[in-house]
Amino acid sequence: MADQNGFAAIHAPRRRAVGALLISFAAIFAWSAIHPHDYFTWLLEVFPAIIGLAILAATYRRFRFTTLVYGLIWAHAVILLVGGHYTYARVPIFNFIRDYWGLGRNYYDRVGHFAQGFVPALVTRELLLRKGVVKRGWMSFIVVCICLAFSALYELFEWRVAMASGSGATDFLGTQGDVWDTQEDMATCLVGAIVALVTLSRFHDRQLQARDAAAKSAAG
After folding, report:
1. DSSP readout, 53-120?
2. Which of 28, 61, 114, 161 has the fewest beta carbons closer than 10 A?
3. What is the structure's pLDDT at 180?
4. pLDDT at residue number 177
5. Which residues fall within 8 angstroms of residue 128, CB to CB, at 6 or more apart?
6. How far is CA 169 from the centre of its chain?
7. Cα–Cα distance for residue pair 131/123, rounded to 1 Å
C-alpha cells in the first residue's frame, strides 16, 4: 500500500517526463519501422524493446521505476530502434567514423552491448534494492553477474536464430568477420554494467530516497 501511495504522490513534472518518453519512443519506433534495411532483421533487433515496453506497461500500477531508470530504458530502446532500422553494421554515423579513422568495422554494435550492461545494471539494482533481495554489500557483484547472465543468454538466442534461419541472420549477428565478436560483446556489456554502478549509484540512491520520502509522506 505504501508503494502505491508513494507513487500517487509523484510530482507532475515526473509524470510528464515519463509521458514525454513514451511519445518520443512511439515517434522513433514509427520512423524505425518505415523502410528498414530488412524487416526480418528489424523485428529481431527491436523485439527486446517491444517486450520491455509490454512488461513495463503491465506492471506499471504495481511497480514504477525512478525517472532515471525510465530514461535509461528509453535510451536503450532508441539504440535498438536505430540498430534495427539500419542494422548494426550499417548505422551511417558509425560508418563515417569507421572510414574517417580507418577502423576495421562499424562499432555501433559495441554501443548496443555497452548499453546492454549499463541500463540493465540500474534496472536490476532498483529491483533488488526495493524488494530487499540482496544486501548492499553484495549488490554490485550480484548486479554485474545478472547483467552478464542476460548477455550470455542473448548471445545464445542469437546463435539459435542463426542456426534456424541460416544466412538470413547474418545482419542480426553483426559479427562483421570478427571471430571474437561474442566474447567482445560480453566484455563490453561487463564494462557497461561496471561503469553504470560506479557513475550513477549515488544519484540513483538519491532518487530512491526521494521516492521513499514521498511514500512515507503520503502514507502518514
Report:
1. HHHHHHHTTT----HHHHHHHHHHHHHHHHHHHH-TT--HHHHHHHHHHT-SS-THHHHHHHHHHHHH
2. 61
3. 75
4. 60
5. 134, 139, 142, 143
6. 22
7. 12
For the record, the C-alpha cell of 51 comes out as 517486450
Q: Please write down the HEC assignment for all residues of 116-156.
A: HHHHHHHHHHHHHHHHCCCCHHHHHHHHHHHHHHHHHHHHH
- Domains: count for the chain: 1
pLDDT class for 41, splitting at 50, 70, 90? confident
Residue with cell 523485428: 43
139: containing domain: 2-219
Query: What is the tens place of the pLDDT at every residue in 181-194?
Result: 788 999 999 999 99
67-106, pLDDT tens digit by residue? Answer: 999 999 999 999 999 999 998 889 999 999 999 999 988 9
How many CA atoms, within 13 angstroms, populate the side-chain half-sphere of residue 7?
13
Q: Which residues contact 97 (CB under 8 A, 6 or more apart)?
A: 103, 107
For residue 171, the model assigns a pLDDT of 56
Read off the C-alpha cell for 104: 576495421
The predicted pLDDT at position 11 comes to: 58
Check: CB of residue 203 under 8 Å from CB of residue 161: no
Reduced to 3 states (helix: H, G, I; strand: E, B; else coil), residue 48 is helix
Percent of the chain at pLDDT > 70 equals 86
Nearest to 44 by CA among 78, 74, 7, 87: 87
